């Protein structure tokens, strides 16, 4: 393991992606997003993704030359086509445009189609919260969860996130996938030949398994059982039926270079509190709730630990496996 500064890790990831074919904007936006995830303690969505992203670029599963474009637009809605490139430039375009629309109309829904894995969901909501807006983020992903009662994986682990700005503090940030654990943890366990705990996944026959590689050929356990499966269905409809993207079962797995262009979908919903009861009322009511929550000593606000980890990472850097650094050409 080696410790590397955030700026050096961004440069290393950016150079690796550029060498694989990403254009300068794609390489930069992707590298920043991945290092953000590492800094916030989400290693499964950090630079550990660089080798697979690079494989997708070099094999044609993602178009490194793609330039996203707004292809549909109304007063409070827009659709961005990622052109089968990596997701981050398209998501940045969608968020930037949606912030302006939400400020004008009170709300905006922004969709992204023909996209790719979009990393840590909450990352995309940082500028939304800093603009004083509430943000919701949804993405589908290659199939990993069965419809309730079925054996065939149809839905992705389908992350959802929310960011609620505060008047004089860091936003409350909620970020979760709809599987019992993020599938990225199983991918890392398979890479490192490590077992996975009970309750994470099923093999291809629908049997509980501790074998990470068997789990990748099977399905993930939905968070909360039937409730998680229903939420995954909701995200598929939002991210695909509204954008024209691929359903999870139409997108090949992302963990190697073989397969199709995933053409995933993302949806962001931005809300201006001023358009409803007013921003100050929103801030006051939110703080009342937070105060009530924190009266219990064991309560920790969602996102608080990640903010603390990010502050430490900015000062001390990030610890990265030497094998991963070697894959990115680190000397």
TrEMBL record:
The keyword Oxidoreductase applies. Keywords: Oxidoreductase. GO terms for molecular function: oxidoreductase activity. It holds the Pfam family Ldh_2. Belongs to the LDH2/MDH2 oxidoreductase family. This is Malate/L-lactate dehydrogenase.
């Amino acid at each position: 393991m080696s410790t590397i500064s955030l700026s050096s890790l961004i440069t290393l990831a950016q150079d690796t992606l550029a060498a694989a074919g990403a254009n300068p904007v794609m390489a930069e936006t992707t590298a920043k997003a991945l290092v953000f995830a590492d800094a916030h303690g989400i290693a499964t969505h950090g630079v550990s993704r660089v080798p697979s992203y690079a494989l997708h670029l070099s094999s044609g599963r993602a178009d490194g030359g793609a330039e996203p474009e707004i292809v549909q637009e109304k007063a409070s809605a827009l659709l961005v086509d990622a052109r089968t490139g990596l997701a981050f430039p398209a998501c940045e375009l969608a968020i930037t445009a949606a912030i302006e629309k939400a400020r004008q109309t009170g709300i905006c829904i922004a969709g992204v189609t023909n996209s790719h894995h979009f990393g840590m969901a909450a990352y995309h909501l940082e500028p939304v919260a800093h603009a004083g807006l509430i943000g919701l983020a949804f993405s589908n992903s290659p199939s990993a969860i069965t419809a309730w009662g079925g054996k065939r994986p149809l839905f992705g682990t389908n992350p959802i996130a929310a960011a609620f700005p505060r008047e004089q503090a860091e936003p409350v940030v909620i970020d979760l996938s709809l599987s019992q654990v993020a599938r990225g943890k199983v991918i890392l366990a398979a890479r490192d030949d490590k077992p996975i705990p009970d309750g994470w996944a099923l093999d291809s026959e629908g049997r509980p398994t501790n074998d990470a590689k068997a789990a990748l050929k099977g399905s993930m356990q939905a968070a909360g059982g039937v409730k998680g499966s229903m939420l995954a269905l909701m995200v598929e409809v939002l991210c695909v039926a509204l954008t024209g993207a691929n359903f999870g079962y139409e997108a090949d797995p992302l963990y190697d270079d073989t397969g199709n262009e995933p053409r995933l979908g993302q949806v962001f919903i931005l809300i201006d509190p001023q358009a409803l009861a007013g921003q100050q009322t929103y801030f006051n009511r939110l703080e009342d709730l937070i105060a009530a929550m924190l009266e219990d000593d064991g309560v920790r606000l969602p996102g608080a630990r990640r903010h603390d980890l990010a502050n430490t990472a900015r000062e001390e850097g990030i610890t990265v496996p030497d094998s991963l650094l070697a894959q990115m050409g680190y000397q």
